[in-house]
Write a structure and sequence with these properties.
The chain is an alpha/beta fold. The protein is built from nine helices and eight strands. The strands form two sheets. A five-stranded parallel β-sheet has the order 4-3-2-8-7. Helix 2 packs parallel to helix 9. The structure holds zinc ion (ZN).
């Protein structure tokens, strides 16, 4: 029995050493990642799309205010909805890698992680013909090999995350937090797809409604937004 317990203990310890500990260290000490930009503009980023219902609505709102953003997309969704990816590119947004499926790096071998990145890059490039330079891992999870495996990409994290993947949050409170957090050089992360584990399907609809108000107010206040490809040389 005690051998079983020791075995379980070793497995848990290895799991922590492989995923949780590197994630905490990388994020706290900002090793090889970007959490803010050194510019007067701010950057809005979206994870988990494209979604056939919400992403086109979001693109309409962005177009209305002429705001360029950055999308971290799921490769398998890119394959399903290539026309949305083409539209993102045509309208001047930056497209980066989230993963091929929405899987935590904590349970991926370095080889499988590399495959997720390569497959997503290929799916984006086939759609847009553009170079892919940016990566953000699902849930912001890193493993011991992530920085090596993803060295060709700039790893973008965020200054502010809002919990907008839940309907309650996207509906109530999001707008106030967006207003309070908007500042020079910050990176926001929002979500244009509610299909992922822990998210709620209808949440992006409420996020888009509040973003619409936020962007209208921001334009009046003179807040400026930037898409990450414009910063490629600075980062
Ligand atoms: Zn995600």
């Amino acid at each position: 029995m005690s051998y079983v317990l020791i075995g379980i203990g070793i497995v848990i310890l290895l799991f922590f050493c492989y995923g949780a500990i590197p994630t905490v260290l990388i994020r706290v000490f900002e090793w090889g990642i970007v959490k803010r930009i050194h510019r007067k503009e701010m950057a809005i980023t979206f994870d988990d799309g494209p979604n056939p219902k919400f992403t086109p609505q979001l693109l309409d709102v962005l177009k209305k205010y002429d705001v360029k953003v950055t999308f971290f997309v799921i490769g398998s969704n890119v394959k399903k909805y290539p026309e949305i990816i083409k539209r993102m590119a045509d309208e001047g947004h930056t497209i980066g890698i989230h993963s091929y499926e929405h899987i935590s790096s904590w349970i991926l071998s370095p080889f499988k992680l590399k495959k997720q990145l390569e497959m997503t890059e290929k799916a984006i490039t086939e759609c847009t013909g553009q170079k892919v330079s940016f990566y953000r891992p699902p849930w912001g999870h890193f493993n011991v090999f992530t920085l090596i495996v993803s060295k060709k990409y700039t790893k973008i994290m965020w200054s502010y995350i809002f919990g907008d993947w839940k309907v309650e949050k996207a509906q109530n409170g999001l707008l106030e937090e967006l207003r309070a957090s908007a500042n020079e050089g910050v990176i926001f992360v929002l979500h244009d797809n509610g299909d992922t584990l822990g998210a709620e399907e209808d949440a992006p609809g409420y996020m888009i409604q509040n973003l619409d108000i936020f962007l209208e107010e921001s334009k009046q206040k003179g807040i400026q937004f930037i898409t990450l490809k414009e910063l490629e040389r600075d980062l």
